[in-house]
Amino acid sequence: MAIQKLLSLLFSQLVLFLLFLDLTNSQGLQVGVQVGIGLNTPQGLQLGFYRQTCPNAESTIHDMVQQFISSDRTLAAPLLRLHFHDCFVRGCDGSVLLNSTSTNQAEKDAVPNQTLRGFNVIDAIKSAVEKECPGVVSCADIVALAARDSVAMVGGPSWVVATGRRDGTVSRASEALAQIPSPFANINQLKQNFSAKGLSVKDLVVLSGAHTIGIGHCFVIINRLYNFTGKGDTDPSLDPAYAAQLKTICKPGDNTTVVAMDPGSSTLFDADYYNVVATRRGLFQSDAALLNDIQTRVYVTLQSSTNGITFAQDFAQSMVKLGNIGVLTGSQGEIRKQCAVVN
């Protein structure tokens, strides 16, 4: 009997390993290739784009991010989220930073973006860079570099960021509402969201790992806890013990309380998010959805059972892809003088 159990366990592990190989190969993972600039880098982006025009730009951005993170580690997640939400609407063009006007509701006022933070950090960095090199460095590049640097400063991986993005002049709340993945999304909706941006299923499950840092708001999970199907019930995909714990924190009608996405290490960028999801303690329905697809479930299981054996490299690669979405270069767009308003 013991031998049969051992053989069964070994067979299960072999199947898991083979499935993971198939997943990574099908999504184009190139082991041993440096994470950074590759054949898919958009024309107009390059390493050290500001080397001649603003040689201290990247070091200034890095140093200022470090100042903010040193005083408040919780800012890493918002800075990463800013980049993600920016790139998912009109590409990585800084449009998420623009203020609404009397004739236009901008992205930052769309429901998915009303809990964004970090605008003050980007504005402070932009002001410092403008003093060094007026009208040279784009807000879009500042967002991309700040996201990379903040993740590295809280224990995460770093990655090469090609620069040369220009700032967009259009920002519409309706587009943000339609295109940013919802915390209520099921796995098919998530796949559609990511595919529309040229991102793979592997990118989906990898970038979801960003929830290893940061917080969620109680109002987002209230229905999941108290009225999932309209019958006063709790989402059955949520671990009952964890649901009971969340109910002691989040009460019906609570619009202000926040909960850690990765309890115990919400300011440390590690792979524990996958343990959270694997044990049915993902905070959002979109986290739980990763267990409802063979490809994403295999990745969750692999990372949770190996302490994130490939997560850091995978995350860096997916972030490079994210940062290349829909960029404006050359004579497109503009270089804003202030990130919140067009010139």
TrEMBL record:
Give the UniProt keywords, A-Z. Calcium, Disulfide bond, Heme, Hydrogen peroxide, Iron, Metal-binding, Oxidoreductase, Peroxidase, Secreted, Signal
Q: What is its main location?
A: secreted
Q: Which residues form the Plant heme peroxidase family profile domain?
A: 44-343
The record's catalysed reaction(s) read: 2 a phenolic donor + H2O2 = 2 a phenolic radical donor + 2 H2O
Q: Which residues cross the membrane?
A: none
Give the signal sequence positions: 1-26
A single Pfam family, by name?
Answer: peroxidase
Q: EC number(s) per UniProt?
A: 1.11.1.7
Q: Where in the cell is it found?
A: Secreted
InterPro entries the record matches: Haem_peroxidase, Haem_peroxidase_sf, Peroxidase_pln, Peroxidases_AS, Peroxidases_heam-ligand_BS, Secretory_peroxidase
Task: Cite the cofactor comment.
Answer: Binds 2 calcium ions per subunit.
UniProt cofactor(s): Ca(2+); heme b
Describe the task this protein carries out.
Removal of H(2)O(2), oxidation of toxic reductants, biosynthesis and degradation of lignin, suberization, auxin catabolism, response to environmental stresses such as wounding, pathogen attack and oxidative stress. These functions might be dependent on each isozyme/isoform in each plant tissue.
In the record, the note on similarity to other proteins reads: Belongs to the peroxidase family. Ascorbate peroxidase subfamily.
Official protein name in the record: Peroxidase
- Origin species, per record, is Hevea brasiliensis (Para rubber tree)
The taxonomic lineage of its organism, from the top, reads: Eukaryota, Viridiplantae, Streptophyta, Embryophyta, Tracheophyta
